[in-house]
Amino acid sequence: MMKLIINTWYYFIIIFCFLFCETKPLSAETSEKEITKDILKEGLENFQKPYGSWTVKNKQLILETEQPHRKRRNIWIKGEYQDFILELDFKLAKGANSGVFMRTVDIDDPVQTGIEVQIRDDHGKSPIDKKFCGSIYDIKEVSENRVKKSGKWNRLKIICEGKSITVYLNKGKVIDIDLSDWKEAGKNPDGTKNKYKTAYKDMAEIGKIGFQDHGGKVWYRNICIKEL
Length: 228
Known about the structure:
Elements: H1 2-20, H2 28-35, E1 36-38, E2 47-48, E3 55-57, E4 60-63, E5 75-77, E6 84-92, E7 97-104, H3 110-113, E8 115-120, E9 154-161, E10 164-169, E11 172-178, E12 208-211, E13 218-227
Antiparallel strand pairs: 1-13, 2-5, 3-4, 4-13, 5-12, 6-9, 6-13, 7-8, 7-12, 9-10, 10-11
């Protein structure tokens, strides 16, 4: 009889553990880590060749060589991205200029076939224009100048979802636009001109993500992409 009671409790404990322990869902934090891709985790492995003058050292994507225009080469993450959250840190040398290209169709012509978030040493400058750091280049200016002094790390977050693009710079929202508002090629909704041959409402919604070699020294780290 005692043996039967022990066996009954044994099976009860097994069933309890199966129902209430093994089926416990993953925490939000665990799920987030599983679906967010750390681009620099394997060095340059997540970038397509050729790498140009870009290197990865100490978990940082670095452009330390200032090349003349004809020798400059942008670097591109493997694969294509449509709707995503891109987060990273960047640091600039004094006077440096770079950019983050998104949804780029032709990497040999990223300006006309992709969307660029400007990265530039604009600390303390005014007035703000559509080429300021954090702006959608030549399309929409940032709401405020939030870039830090050269040599300081900045935090950038870009959210692309359908026609919506939101940009945060150093924890402040600086861009929140709907590309559908850009109905004409070469013209912004506020009446100013831009350099694009395609109306931004018609820009591709999937493409490459890359970093611009504009000749200045720039550092990127903590590059993470979460597809939506």
